[in-house]
Write a structure and sequence with these properties.
3-stranded antiparallel β-sheet; about 0% helix
Length: about 150
Amino acid sequence: TDRYYPLNPATATAIKVVDLRGTLPGWNLTLQLGDFNSTTTTAKLTDAKITFRQGVGLGTITHTTADGSGPATWGTDLVLEAGGAAKKFVSATANNGGMTTDIEWPAPGATTEATGPVTTVPIELYVKGASAMAQSYEATLTWSLNNAP
């Protein structure tokens, strides 16, 4: 059956973007999830996804500014498909996002797998039923900071 797993159950996850350019042209941070490949065979997890949630008690953005610029923003929860295209994660429009932007997800309260999404888990891995064999898998998250809103 399908399974949902909280990621990094023991620690918080944080990302920091520092824009000291002074011209405040804007920026965007994209994220791409590579394929989940077995560490011992040629097996691959198909249809695996990672969800980054935002909102109260989940992911938050804080902005430290001394230049009058506003904070960076994001839209909705980000769902990344294994082997899929990069998606815009957080962005700052022109005249915003200067100085330091912190993006953080707390350690989740849940530490065990579930048969459905757990909306209180900040970062969650979905594994489609019957797609995994009993072995270890790895995937790479590629973060890209772009000089455009």
